[in-house]
Amino acid sequence: MLDDEWIEIPDDYINLTSLGKGDYSLAIRGKVINSSWGSPSIVNFTVLPHLTETFIFRASIIGLLIFGIIFGAAKRIKHNENRDKEKIIINNQVNDLKHKALSSMMNPHFIFNSLNSVQYLINIDRKREANDYISLMAKLIRMNLESASESYIRLDEEIKRLDLYLKIEKLRFSDKFSYDITAGPGCKYRINHDPEYDHTAVCRKFHLARHNAVRKGR
Questions:
Q1: What is the rounded CA–CA span in Å between residue 159 and residue 83?
Q2: Using DSSP, how many helices (H) and how many strands (E) does the chain show?
Q3: Any idea where the domains of the chain sit in the sequence?
Q4: Is the pTM of this model over 0.85?
């Protein structure tokens, strides 16, 4: 329906930028000087909504939000599953070490204190340090198993074992002490098979000494 009120404009164009979305009809008429108004021409047009007001845009945004939530939840679940799997693997390694350590006649207090430290590192997600700890323990246990039936052991091998023991204890005590292994005057050793340096030592002779050095500082 046409509005009875006409608006006369001085220019030859019409600015309709303030229109909202919807369907419109525009009636235009004109005249020349000293003549009457001509018959109006009707123009029908539609103003489309802005992109952000469309259903497709809003549905897309909601879809992206839902996808992001689902993706984030799935990623977190996967991360937790991987972390749990790593903990299971490390715990299995710890249990295996426990059995091997007991079989190698190692000090039970040292075994359980060390394994408790590994378990603590696992619980606080310091898996790299836990793996380092397990690696050192495995090397020490292997050396003990290899020499379990021997009455004597090469001095250089005993020094290797002593070094592993001190590295483990240093990790357990968070680097609260330092150590240096030196041989006394006239005691030659090398980590090789040169007969000149093929000295031997009583197995586990140094165990009490190293225990007192770490625990009692002497």
A1: 37
A2: 5, 4
A3: 85-216
A4: no
